[in-house]
Amino acid sequence: VLVLLMVVEVWVVSIAVAVGGSGVGTAFSKGAILRVVRVVKLLRVGRVARLLRSVPELLILIKGIKAASRSVGVFFSMWFLVIYVFALVFVQIAEREGDYFNSVPQAMNSLLLDGILPDHARFMKDVSSENWIFWPLTLAFVCLAVLTLMNMLVG
Questions:
Q1: Burial class (CB in 10 A: 0-12, 13-18, 19+), 87
Q2: Which tens digit of pLDDT belongs to each residue from 15-40?
């Protein structure tokens, strides 16, 4: 059923818009396509609700993440503050020499990736070299998946 809904959402609606057109007087003109999209989004919400009802363990994990979100946010804020202070100190001591501490943002990046997350440093540098938007997205993924979820399972 889920696969069928996804096929309808991706292929059938796209083909209907391509064949029917989107000009005046067609079925997809003047916001009608937005109503179709709204219905499809409601179907997605229904699928998530069914998934949560069928797997109660997933709901418990989501509630745990919600309960721990404040302390995780405080932890990340404290982490940022410590990295910032040490980046300032290292930039002042290094006097803009070397590869790691030329500027405060570069020093913060070096301290975060090479100091705190050395297992993920190469991956994040490779991904962010393709496009700058990948750096915050990859950092969010690493912080959520590796730090938050794994530490929640351990402790």
A1: buried
A2: 766 665 555 455 555 556 666 666 76
